[in-house]
Amino acid sequence: MAERYSSFTPGGTGWLLQRLTAAFLIVVLAFHFFLLHFVNHAADVTFAATQARMENVGYFLTMVLFLVTAAFHGVNGVYNALVNQGLTGTRKKVVFAVLTLAGLALVAQGTYVALVMAGWM
Amino acid sequence: MSQSYNRGLIEDFGRWKEFSAGMWAWIFHKFTGWMLIGYLFTHIAVLSSSLTSPEAYTTTIQGLESLFIIRVLEVGLLAVAVFHILNGIRLLMVDLGVGLEAQDKSFYASLIITGVIVVASVPTFLDGVTF
Asked: Which residues of A86-109 are buried (b: 16+ CB within 10 A; e: fewer)?
């Protein structure tokens, strides 16, 4: 039996969440690119147009959920890539703490920005 | 029980000439993943210009979009995102046990479809900017 390459534990919570967020992100990332590069063009973005989109509660909630899932999927992916590279012991714990803080800070900042864009803060 | 193959450590990049399609898919998925999470932090930082003022936000976005290099980087971001999405679908299918015997072909398909989508998107991404 060959050695497993993945550091994910099949059936574990992290393993499952990485796949559930992946399924969500496939749809929302494609939507995000399509909306802001093909329906609207990035070069034509103005604060007023951004606010008009973000004021829609459904759009706002989708974008915040997009941010939360992307931050988790990305940070968890980086952590597992580093564990695959042989990260162990104290360094593994420090990297976990730093990545968790960075992910939480990213979500906090992004949510605050979305609230300001919507005109609710 | 599914059969598995011992191809040695992928982390040993020095033996890249021996890598199979699935190993390249693994490396490309890691590389594009690093790019995407790096970009997400940058993206939120740029959008944070909206915290200064509405004008600062509009000026920042439109100023960046007027630069040719930014448009080229956006095409690169599209390529990275499309590959990560397509290969991600491939990985979810493999996890579900669907098409495992064709995982090398689905990797090549991911590369080709990414190439087609990116080339077809270049005119849209470079619209209204000159070198």
From this structure: ebeeeeeeeeeeebeebbeebbeb
Predicted complex ipTM: 0.92
Domain coordinates in residue numbering, chain B: 22-125
Q: What mean pLDDT is predicted for residues B4-14?
A: 67
CA distance A53 to A37: 15
User: Of A69, A64, A62, which is closest to residue A23 (Cα–Cα)?
Assistant: A69
pTM above 0.95, yes or no: no
What digits encode the pLDDT tens for the residues A87-98?
999 999 999 999
- For an interface test with B, give the residue of A3, A4, A5, A39 to mutate (most B CBs within 10 A): A5
What is the dotted CATH code of the domain comprising B22-125? 1.20.1300.10
Query: Using a CB-CB distance cutoff of 8 angstroms, which residues of chain A are in contact with residue B128?
Result: 41, 43
Structural domains of chain A, ranges and CATH numbers in brackets: 13-118 (1.20.1300)
Confidence of residue B1 (pLDDT cuts 50, 70, 90): very low
